[in-house]
Write a structure and sequence with these properties.
Elements (H helix, E strand, L loop, with lengths): L2 H19 L4 H7 L13 H8 L1 H25 L4 H16 L12 H11 L1 H18 L2 H17 L1 H4 L8 H17 L1 H8 L6 H14 L1
Helix pairs in contact: 1-4, 1-5, 2-4, 3-4, 3-12, 4-5, 4-6, 5-6, 5-10, 6-7, 6-10, 7-8, 8-10
């Protein structure tokens, strides 16, 4: 890769990281007066915001986390004439920023909502298919997190199949495919405890997980 491309990639990752580092979960903390890092699962993300702070704050955190991924890709793309390398770099940077926020001493969430946002910005068709895959897996398995992880792992393959499900659009840019491979790896890294629980037969199904979340809220 020419040094110009490497410089563009590095700058795009940095810009995306700054976007991703914005801790929208603090909205719930300021609104409800609770620190998500001390209640529920301790995770700075939409799922824990729903449990600890309630539906509306949780929805706002979800929207904010997804929106910062969308904004990172679209803004960097707009400044670089839609360079696939730059957009892919911004996508990866945004999720890294959410997972290890500059403003939270390198702590953060697990990146699910931000990943949804960046995939939407990279190619909405792939996200639409991914949502269908997720709900199919959820109905078949009843495991929320495992369905999400399998779906994230399938996104690079869906991107490579774009010519099949969107004829006339052309192939997906290779940087987008590489970016989603990295995003899948980040997803598994941040959710590895769930993978271990699933392999050990201890991962709760969706209904059990929601019941546990309600109990945590009552204890908090």
């Amino acid at each position: 890769m020419p040094w110009q491309h490497l410089s563009l990639l590095a700058a795009s990752i940095g810009a995306g990281y700054l976007f991703g580092s914005v801790p929208f979960a603090l909205l719930a903390q300021r609104w409800k007066g609770v620190d998500l890092r001390r209640f529920g699962s301790g995770n700075i993300g939409a799922s824990n915001a729903f449990v600890v702070a309630g539906k509306l704050p949780g929805f706002l955190v979800l929207l904010g986390d997804a929106s910062k991924g969308i904004a990172a890709v679209l803004l960097v793309g707009g400044l670089t004439a839609q360079s696939p390398i730059a957009e892919a770099g911004a996508a990866v940077g945004a999720v890294i920023g959410h997972d290890w926020s500059l403003f939270l001493r390198l702590r953060g969430g697990k990146g699910t909502a931000t990943t949804v946002g960046v995939v939407l910005a990279l190619d909405w068709r792939v996200l639409a298919l991914s949502v269908g895959v997720y709900f199919f897996l959820l109905l078949a398995s009843r495991y929320t997190v495992i369905s999400s992880l399998i779906t994230v792992a399938a996104i690079p393959g869906l991107m490579m199949l774009r010519e099949w499900f969107a004829p006339g659009v052309g192939p997906e840019p290779a940087p987008f495919v590489f970016a989603t491979v990295l995003l899948a790896a980040l997803g598994y890294l941040r959710h590895w405890d769930h993978v271990e629980h699933f392999l050990q037969g201890r991962e709760p199904k969706a209904a059990d997980m929601f019941r546990e979340m309600r109990e945590r809220k009552l204890k908090g």
